[in-house]
């Protein structure tokens, strides 16, 4: 997404984000904004605190999500959204979720989470996790795929990629209950204690 002009969040956009379960503190923490095309602006901050890109979430129209193109600071296949914040919360489990709002919901509940922004982790993202494991040897990765009919069939392929790119990282899969399409949806009706 090139040349995005942002503006303050209008009440309608704030209401949308609140309906997704995000509170005002989380909206501010992630510096969420609005584009002039009435889409949610989601800035990307890398693990070093640099602004490296963004995504937009359209409320109407398609594609629903759009990220900026790869550049010298950002490669979509390598990027783990919220890694900087997750490292601050990290003790032994790191939750790997598909979407930005999923990661924000877990972060809001003081759970370390990164979003891989797709239906499955890439080998580059798994390599980054293996590097993270070198600095956090007690790290266990908890994969929380969306319960949307797309991600679950890809788990076999993901397992093979884990064995080649992050074999040293303990992994397990957390399947969401029926009726919850993703981690963000889970926290609309469930508590942190029910998640872990």
Describe the structure.
- The chain contains eight helices and nine strands.
- Strands 1-2-3-4-5 form a five-stranded antiparallel sheet, with no helix packed on it. A four-stranded parallel sheet has the order 7-6-8-9.
- It has helices spanning 11-19, 24-29, 83-89, 100-108, 123-135, 155-165, 183-189, 192-195; strands at 6-7, 33-35, 39-45, 51-58, 65-67, 93-97, 113-115, 140-144, 171-173.
- Helix 4 crosses helix 7 (183-189) and helix 5 crosses helix 6 (155-165).
- Helices cover 34% and strands 20% of the residues.
- The longest helix has 13 residues, at 123-135.
- The chain is of the alpha/beta class and 196 residues long.
- The mean pLDDT is 94.
- Strand 6 (93-97), helix 4 (100-108) and strand 7 form a beta-alpha-beta unit.
Write the layout of secondary structure elements.
Layout: E1 6-7, H1 11-19, H2 24-29, E2 33-35, E3 39-45, E4 51-58, E5 65-67, H3 83-89, E6 93-97, H4 100-108, E7 113-115, H5 123-135, E8 140-144, H6 155-165, E9 171-173, H7 183-189, H8 192-195
Parallel strand pairs: 6-7, 6-8, 8-9
Antiparallel strand pairs: 1-2, 2-3, 3-4, 4-5
Helix pairs in contact: 4-7, 5-6
């Amino acid at each position: 997404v090139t040349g995005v002009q942002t503006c303050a969040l209008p009440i309608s956009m704030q209401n949308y984000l609140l309906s997704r379960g995000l509170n005002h503190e989380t909206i501010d923490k992630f510096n969420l904004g609005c584009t002039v095309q009435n889409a949610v602006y989601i800035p990307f901050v890398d693990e070093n605190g640099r602004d490296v890109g963004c995504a937009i979430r359209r409320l109407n129209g398609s594609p629903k999500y759009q990220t900026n193109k790869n550049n010298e600071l950002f490669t979509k296949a390598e990027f783990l959204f919220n890694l900087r914040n997750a490292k601050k919360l990290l003790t032994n489990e790191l939750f790997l979720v598909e979407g930005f709002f999923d990661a924000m919901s877990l972060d809001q509940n003081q759970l370390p989470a990164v979003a891989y922004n797709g239906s499955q982790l890439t080998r580059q993202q798994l390599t980054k996790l293996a590097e993270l494991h070198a600095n956090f040897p007690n790290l266990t990765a908890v994969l929380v795929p969306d319960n949307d009919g797309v991600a679950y069939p890809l788990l076999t392929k993901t397992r093979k990629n884990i064995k080649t790119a992050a074999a040293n990282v303990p992994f397990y899969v957390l399947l969401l209950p029926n009726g919850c399409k993703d981690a963000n949806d889970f926290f609309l009706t469930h508590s942190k204690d029910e998640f872990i």
